[in-house]
């Protein structure tokens, strides 16, 4: 602890650093929730001021650039490296745990679980460099795949894209897997809107058993599948009680079905008040990506042994033109198996206990 002329500095320094962390997290929550509509309102208001040329020029750009979000987006390394994301990281803190190299001559689909309320962990790890993704996985470009509507809002879309996020439309995913060479990693939050309705501290419910689109995508493009689990993602917000069948849940499912996004009624702590607000709780988030397995040489390995070797490592997928339901189901099961294995292996290290298990719905 620094003591200069009898003055203790730590108590002054620490709160400022922590305040910056809170600010970093709070501004991200706000930009996720309301920055889009605010930008839209700003553009409309500008039309009635002497600066009306700005929204007019911008709308020309907007139309011209409409497809960018489906063509790999427009990442801006400078934004990905902003100091504010390091404060964001340190708030929880968020950690990226690499357990296997990813070969840059292949493409990858990272299945990220669980969704949580706002995917804070996935955002920090894949849309910023705060946890050093590019250093940990040299030659791999991460694309955080996110819901389309974030890209409809003027200005907001540019900000959102700068982190390397892209639209979740099928043409967007196919474009990255076919037109961008190799070394691309789609970070797909597989459970989507429905899974966010299950995000509660201590809960480990995934919506995965009927989600096979990403498996088909992997088969069609020969992209390797990598299970990724974000421990702690569900612990940073609480959510209004919405059990299956409750009136709230029925309404939320309706919104999710027709709007494509969910409306969890969530809360964390406040900026000043520690018991209620939109700032997430300070709980660690550890995102574990695959794992390396030392392989002893085995003569004539049995199918069982071969299957074992796949666990937790990227599942290499050969390109299949028209995968059958059977092929998809098979890969889907081995993916789920790998994910469970990964979860079980790292849960204790990440603060869970022996009795915690994944619930896959
Ligand atoms: C999982 O998501 C699907 C939509 O993809 C939805 O129909 C289903 O009800 C969800 N399951 C649960 C248990 O929420
Ligand atoms: C924070 O706000 C909540 C809800 O309004 C209130 O119940 C609680 O007492 C407040 N806590 C503090 C520390 O002010």
From TrEMBL:
- Supply the source organism for this entry: Paralvinella palmiformis
Q: Which domain of life is it from?
A: Eukaryota
Transmembrane helix recorded as keyword: yes
Chief localisation class: endoplasmic reticulum
An annotated GO BP = triglyceride biosynthetic process
- Spell out where the chain crosses the membrane: 25-53
Which EC number(s) does the record attach to this protein? Answer: 2.3.1.-
Q: What is this protein called?
A: Acyltransferase
Tell me which UniProt keywords the record has, alphabetically: Acyltransferase, Endoplasmic reticulum, Lipid biosynthesis, Lipid metabolism, Membrane, Transferase, Transmembrane, Transmembrane helix
Q: What class of enzyme is it?
A: transferase
Concerning its family, UniProt says: Belongs to the diacylglycerol acyltransferase family.
Q: Name one GO cellular component term.
A: endoplasmic reticulum membrane
Record membrane topology: Multi-pass membrane protein
- Localization: Endoplasmic reticulum membrane
Q: Which GO terms describe its molecular function?
A: diacylglycerol O-acyltransferase activity
Signal is among the record's keywords: no
């Amino acid at each position: 602890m620094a003591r200069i002329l009898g003055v203790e500095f730590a108590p002054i320094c620490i709160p400022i650093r922590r305040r910056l962390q809170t600010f970093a997290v709070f501004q991200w929550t706000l930009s996720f929730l309301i920055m889009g509509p605010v930008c839209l309102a700003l553009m409309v208001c500008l039309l009635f001021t002497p600066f009306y040329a700005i929204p007019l020029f911008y709308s020309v750009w907007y139309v011209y650039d409409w497809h960018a979000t489906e063509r790999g987006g427009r990442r801006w390394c400078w934004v990905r490296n902003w100091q504010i994301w390091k404060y964001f990281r340190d708030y929880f803190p968020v950690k990226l745990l690499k357990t296997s190299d990813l070969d840059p001559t292949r493409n990858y689909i990272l299945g990220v679980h669980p969704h949580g309320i706002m995917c804070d962990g996935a955002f920090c790890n894949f849309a910023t460099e705060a946890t050093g993704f590019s250093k940990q996985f040299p030659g791999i470009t991460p694309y955080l795949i996110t819901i389309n509507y974030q890209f409809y809002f003027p200005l907001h879309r540019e900000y959102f894209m700068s982190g390397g996020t892209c639209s979740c439309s099928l043409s967007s995913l196919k474009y990255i897997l076919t037109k961008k060479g190799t070394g691309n990693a789609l970070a797909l939050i597989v459970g989507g809107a429905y899974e966010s309705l299950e995000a509660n501290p201590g809960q480990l419910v995934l919506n995965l058993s009927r989600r096979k689109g990403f498996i088909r995508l992997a088969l069609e493009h020969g992209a390797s599948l990598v299970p990724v689990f974000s421990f702690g993602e569900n612990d940073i917000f609480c959510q209004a009680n919405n059990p299956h069948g409750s009136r709230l849940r029925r309404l939320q499912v309706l919104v999710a079905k027709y709007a494509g996004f969910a409306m969890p009624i969530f809360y964390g702590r406040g900026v000043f008040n520690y018991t209620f607000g939109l700032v997430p709780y300070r709980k660690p988030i550890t995102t574990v990506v695959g794992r390396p397995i030392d392989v002893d040489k085995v003569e004539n390995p049995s199918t069982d042994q071969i299957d074992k070797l796949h666990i937790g490592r990227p599942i290499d997928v050969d390109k299949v033109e028209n995968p059958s339901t059977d092929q998809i189901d098979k890969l889907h099961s081995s993916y789920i198996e790998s994910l469970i294995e990964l979860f079980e292996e790292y849960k204790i290290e990440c603060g869970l206990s022996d009795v915690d298990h994944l619930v896959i719905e």
